Every structure is written in structure tokens, then in C-alpha cells.
Amino acid sequence: MMNPWKLNKVAPLRAALIALQSMGSLDELVIDQLDQNNTQALWLSHRQYPALNAYLFTYGQLQDRYGLQLGYPNNDAALQAAYGVLENLTLERLAEHLQMHFAL
Questions:
Q1: What is the distance between the alpha carbons of residues 101 and 46, in angstroms, rounded to a whole number?
Q2: How far is CA 99 from CA 5, 32, 38, 62, in A?
Q3: Which residues form the domain of 85?
Q4: What Cα–Cα distance (Å) separates residue 58 from each residue in 6, 16, 55, 88?
Q5: pLDDT digit string, tens, across residues 38-57
Q6: Contacts of 42 (CB under 8 A, 6+ apart)
Q7: Chain-wide mean pLDDT for the chain?
Q8: Burial of 66 (0-12, 13-18, 19+ CB in 10 A)
Q9: Residues in contact with 1: Cβ distance below 8 Å, sequence separation at least 6, in sequence order
Q10: Which pLDDT does position 67 carry in this prediction?
Q11: CA separation for the pair 27, 9 (Å, rounded)
């Protein structure tokens, strides 16, 4: 896992990564480096199952809240419709969704 403080991301995203890291929730996840220019968002994927991913973002959210788009293998339409995009999540709810999504 890379050092969240070194990422070119807004402070709330770095804080979320640090909180997840302190819970031991980031050990199996990889931060996608392809989206480095977007400081308000990042992609996380499972180390063993890269098609299982999540897009974490802060733009368009209330202060100290997060948006989360969950990605599933084979672009499962039923799962996308049920759990596709979640918005204005607290850090605690964000962590819960990520832990469930990635089975951490």
C-alpha cells in the first residue's frame, strides 16, 4: 500500500484512505494510478480480483461526505442498479460499504 499522504488527492480522500488503512481495510486493495490528475477521486480495486473495484469521490458531495460507485465483475447490471452509486456517505458508512464490497 502506498503512502496516502503522497497522493495528489484532496485532504478528505487522503483522510479516508488513512482511516481505512488504520482499520486494516486497505491491505487487499490497490489504488489505480491512471487517474492521478483527478484530485477529487480515485479508483480502488481488489488485489486478487481487479474487476471488483470502487470509485471513491468527493465532488458534488456535502462537506466531510463521500460518493462511492461500486464496480462488479462482468458489469453485472442487477448489482449496478441495486448498489451502483452511493452519495453523501459518512466516513463510517463509506468504510462499511467498502468492507462489504471487497469482503475485507
A1: 10
A2: 22, 18, 24, 22
A3: 4-101
A4: 18, 11, 10, 9
A5: 899 999 999 898 888 999 99
A6: 7, 9, 13, 31, 32, 35, 55, 56, 57
A7: 85
A8: buried
A9: 21, 26, 27, 29, 31
A10: 97
A11: 20
Task: Tally the domains of the chain.
Answer: 1
pTM of the model: 0.85
Give me the residues paired with residue 67 across strands. 57
Supply the DSSP string of the chain, one letter for each residue.
---GGGSSS-HHHHHHHHHHHHTTTTTTEEE-GGGTT-TTEEEEEESS-TTSEEEEE-TTS-TT-EEEEEE-GGG-HHHHHHHSEEEEE-HHHHHHHHHHHTT-
